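User: For a benchmark we're assembling, each entry needs the component sequences followed by a predicted structure for the full assembly. Here are entry 17's components. Please fill in the structure.
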Amino acid sequence: MIRGKIIGQVWGARHVPGLDGRKLVLVAAHDAAQAPTGRVVVAIDTLDLRSGDDVTVAFGSGARNVLRPGPDNRDLVCDAAIAALVEGAE
Amino acid sequence: MILGRVVGEVWATRKDARLERSKLLVVRPHGWYEPRWATEHLVAVDDLHAGVGDDVVVCLGQPARWSRGEENMPVDAAIMAVVDRIELDAGAAQASHAAPGIRRRWTPPSRWAR
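Assistant: Structure for entry 17:
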């Protein structure tokens, strides 16, 4: 997983069936010191978060597990999903 | 997923049977999160009838194979959504270091909220 900050939201009425009812957000990744790394990812947000929130993003099968617990979730179209809202880090 | 803009189309007559219903589009990414993927252009399968100039969300890797829903396709990049609107957080949009790929290459059309 990576950590990042939500910087925006994306809407698209024309989407694949698997995106029905899902919210897409833009996340700018940052490192442990909260410095942005310059990487940006579009992730599915199931937690209904808002811009500025500090989150962790899961990729790959971890992202699919966010949407639907495995193992029978290989048909989900999702390669990045928000796994947690970060409240504090040391 | 990543954001990108459709800049072209690829035609192929001889191709895998599962690709016969789909278009292949050339997408220029606005930003990347995975350096090993980073490239100026990529080819993505499209079932949403996106056109040149459209901004799209592209799904990468294994999950792209299931973009049509029921079929396991021989692809590793698929158009997942055609973008209608993007709202960028005002602070993030101003911080030039927050999203350099998006800042550098992408100016949202005026019809989108800022």
